[in-house]
Specification:
It contains ten helices and ten strands. It has 275 residues and is of the alpha+beta class. The strands form two sheets. A seven-stranded mixed beta sheet has the order 9-6-3-8-2-1-10, sandwiched between helices. Helix 2 packs antiparallel against helix 3 and helix 7 crosses helix 10.
Amino acid sequence: MSQAISVLHGDFGRIALVELDRPTVMHAQKEAHLMVHIGGAGGTAALVSREIPVDAATAVAVNPWQEHGFRIEPPGGNFRGIAVYFSSEWFLLGREPRELAFEFGRPSIRATRQIADGARQVATALLQGETGSAVEDILFALIRDAYEQSWQKVRGARLADRAMAKYNDNRIRRSVSLMEENLGGGRGIDWIASEMSLSRTWFFKLFKRQTGVSPNMYLNALRVERAIDWLVNTDIPLGEISNDLGFSAQTGFTRFFTSNVGVSPSAYRRVAYSE
């Protein structure tokens, strides 16, 4: 059974030590994402245009709002790994302009000794319930090594040489705000398109062109993010969280959360802690 063994939340984002035996649906997050194998069966990260093994030799790096899913290889095995969802602002602070968008150069990362050791150190810190600068230092070094490797032999300018204009259409910025204000499902995507004075078809095209994902996937990511925040930082019952996020039954919320995060909301809440 898939489970989160330990999850740490902090200003950097969140880190999870996980054991997975089932696939996730295709989904996206606003944070950059790094998955490193530390034991058990291997896995495969499915991106829109390619598949990346996640095993003793290879880790996967996923950019913010890049659509992806995960499955176990071979099916039926147990994958153990470190999943890192980190804030671009935290990683870039003091090195790049805050408005600069973070991007890995490529998704396939060689699991060098440095990266493997870093992942194991992070796992040990989580198992021991550690927090603070020591954990963040290990985490930063792990991400830095993966980031620098991702840009090796990649044609074109590095991140430091270019600023990426994200969400430069004000209608998309406003539509995201409307989504955040209506996570309970009272207002649908069609209503948001209407508020932007756009047809449904054109709104979907424009939204994906600006963000890289569909409006529905973006909305699902916001719902997962809100659910995680409530699970970690409040004692709100699962039934109330389910209702507030627009689910007609708690079982539907549990299926939705599990298929996106990999573990159930109750299991996530049980092991998560914060700095």
